[in-house]
Design a protein that fits this description.
Strand content: 25-35%
Distance between the termini: 30 Å
Amino acid sequence: MKFLAGILSLILLLSIPCPAGAISLVNKEVILEAQNYGVKRKQLALTDFLTPWLAYEEKAPVLNETTERAYVYTPFLLIANDARDKARSKQPVQLADSEKILADYAGCLVFSIIINGDNQNFADNIQVMIKQDKKVIKPYHAVTNPPVQTPWFPNEPQFAAHSYFYFADKDIALDKAIMLVVTAKDKRERRFYFDLTNFK
């Protein structure tokens, strides 16, 4: 069930168009590197594969599979993940597919966020913003999913909500750090620190 939810979330992620622009310069060499990265790591579980693009909630008392977290989907990761999926299903990994992904996501920076709560409504009215220097940047699109009961229920965390937020990269200085700030109905502020220069 978790696997199916992951696939459906990725399909949703890949179906949202982004505004025109460019996240970063990606040439054929980088595309081939990302494809190779994904193919070589096809046996990794998705959570392990995504770890290099992960930020945990900054005040988390423990870092494990129950910790609130966020992932930044860079062009490299989008291509590598597509190559991983194709390799796992024994499909060819083609340059044209990667170029289409880059075109679909040009001008876009996407964050996948997983937060925890103690009831099925804790993530209602979820709000996300990026803080960078003195600037506050809001997403132009969001894909939010209702919280689901965790495998640890009735222990904490009892429920987890997984959402995607899309930002126009022209509003963000990609050579600096950002703080991704998340709030919801439970009024608790979650903060995820990303130094964007450290992500492939």
